[in-house]
Amino acid sequence: MRRSVGLSAALLCSLSLVVPASSALQGADPDPNQQKRKVDAQIDQLRGDLDETNADLANAYIALRTTQAKLPGAQAALEQAQGAAARAETANAIAAQELEVAQANETKAQDELAATTQQIRQSRGEVAQFAAQIYQDQGFGEFDMAMTSTSPQQFADRIALIGTVMDLQGQSMVALATARASQTAQEDHLSALRVDSEKAKRKAEASLAAANAARDKATAAKAALDQLAAQQTTQAATVKAQSVAEAARLQQMQAESNRLGAVIKARAAEALRKARIAAAANARAKAAAKARAARNKPGGGSGGSSSSGGPLSPPTTLGWISSEYGMRFHPIQHVWRLHSGRDYAAPCGTPVKAAADGVIIESGYNSGYGNRVIIDHGVIGGVALTTTYNHMRSIRLHSGRVKRGQVVGYEGTTGNSNGRHIHFEVYEDGNFVDPRNYL
């Protein structure tokens, strides 16, 4: 029987109803929503496996398993965030390089434009000087100089000089026109490069922001994983400490079970002895009656049988059967134990009724069983039957005789219980048996 000291009835009645038992938690699903639904379902099922474990231990263990179920998802999230951060860092480096190239191209174009502008400025100065000279000489300066030559050789030299000057002037005019055309082309090219630089700058800024965001996400994912790991360590220590306390409580409960078994066996032996005496007396009475040719109604044991065919009625017909009688594997302590009764889960405060006529031999609070009532039903069908009603919120009848269906208490979750239910036990001649044998 898995039992230990639990929280108060008022507090525990706010917990979930006991649900059917199931396997332990599985690994995380890649889909977060699907993972949450799966974990929630497994937690509910796990709570069913621990329905008669101390609430503190059960809650600590469920918290630990919940954390463990989150770890694979957190690890996957961290790896995904780190991968995204690495890709963002690479993209940011490429964008920064592209921006650097674009800015270098823009700077080079600016320098070339500045040189062309300076060349135009010089060419304009030269052309201005030519124009001033022509204006001053009224267009005949060089010609007059040639005509005033005193010798043919001097005339020829001056004519050649005039040709050279005219060539230089023409070259200056061509250079100025060419420089102006280059300036226009360079200005257009510079404008295009500035557009490229602006695009590269925006791309670099966006890449940097994405890289920073990815790094922040990876940092947050790492922190979340570290927190879960630390939380798991703390919760594991809590489960270990609670398990030690649970083992001590189970030893106390085993001692209580042994004591109660001895009491019930002694009562069963006495009831059977009296039943045999009554049966022998009844047999003699029948023989005497037959000799006198009279008929007597045969007698029977106390309690009678139910209309359903069994001598006992279930303690409640509300709710559902949350756990049957039989061996159970404890998911925390990893041992097999006998679940010594049948659990009926119903809303807190549901009336709990006597399974058959009998007498209350014990009632009150027990650290493991919580609020409990024990009814001796006497000998039924040749065996001594006793029933117990455990984990009740409160007890209505503490002593005296009871009738089948009479309310003895109200459903709750006291003692070694973490969900509201009635743990209904049947003793046959002082030994646990499956209640279904008599229902």
Strand content: 15-25%
Number of strands: 13
- The name of the CATH architecture of the largest domain is Orthogonal Bundle
Oligomer: single chain
- The helical percent reads 55-70%
Mean pLDDT: 75
Per DSSP, the total helix count is 5
Q: List low-confidence stretches.
A: 1-28, 293-308
Question: Main beta sheet: strand number and arrangement?
Answer: 8 strands, antiparallel
Total discrete domains: 2
- What is the molecular shape? rod-shaped
Q: How far is the first residue's CA from the last residue's CA?
A: 21 Å
**Rg estimate, integer Å:** 51 Å
Please write the string of helix (H) and strand (E) elements.
HHHHHEEEEEEEEEEEEE
**CATH class group of the largest domain:** Mainly Alpha
- Reported by name, the CATH topology of the largest domain is Helix Hairpins
The assigned structural class equals alpha+beta
Protein name: M23ase beta-sheet core domain-containing protein
Keywords: Coiled coil, Signal
Coiled coil: 36-119, 201-231
InterPro entries: Cell_wall_metabolism_enzyme, Dup_hybrid_motif, M23ase_b-sheet_dom
Question: How would you sum up this structure, described in words?
Answer:
The protein folds into 2 domains: 50-252, Helix Hairpins (Orthogonal Bundle), CATH 1.10.287; 300-437, Distorted Sandwich (Glucose Permease (Domain IIA)). Helices cover 57% and strands 15% of the residues. The chain has helices at 9-12, 32-49, 55-137, 141-147, 152-291, and strands spanning 320-323, 326-329, 336-339, 342-345, 351-353, 358-366, 370-380, 383-392, 394-395, 400-402, 407-410, 422-428, 431-433. The strands form 3 sheets. Strands 1, 4, 6, 7, 8, 10, 12 and 13 form an 8-stranded antiparallel sheet that branches. Helix 2 (32-49) packs antiparallel against helix 3. The two termini are 21 Å apart.
